[in-house]
Input
Amino acid sequence: AASTTVSAVATDAVGNASTTGTKAVTIDTAAPTISVLSANSTAKTITLTYSEALNSTDLPATTAFNVSIGGVDNAVSSVAVSGSTIVLTLTNAFAAGAVSVAYTDPTTGNDTAAIQDLAGNDSASFTNTVVADGYIRGATVYIDVNKNGEIDAADYLVGTTDANSNILIPGSAPAGSIIATGGVN
Output
């Protein structure tokens, strides 16, 4: 959020000017960020929790999301927003397994066809992935940009996996293979 100061001169009903004052105004320019992803196989839903309240009127298209479970695609049939969460209802039932969710912002600018906060800031595209078939928490994940199969200075640091082996890869990340190192199974 950015802050700016506004000066104003107020007038009364007769047109007399009163004292000049200033008021600090905060303008929200920060995009919402995803913090938690959870799946419920019984309800056929994926829940994305964001850092702030989201626009629940203008929703992204179901096709903006790509979901696969255990490597099998499962189309999103509906998108609902409540507060800071988005619930994706999937077309097909699924068993518990490695869940991968990707979201693609439809344009580079802020628009109502995207995940947005209440101020109209678009959320960035992302890819969520599981590092292995099983949980490896605390693994450091890189994108092997030069595709040499080794971690080196040219590679892109994505971050560290959470307790469930999940990590979010921003849509702005470069192309390449994923390399994970360390962590606890």
User: Anything to note?
Assistant: The mean pLDDT is 80. The chain has no helices and 14 strands.
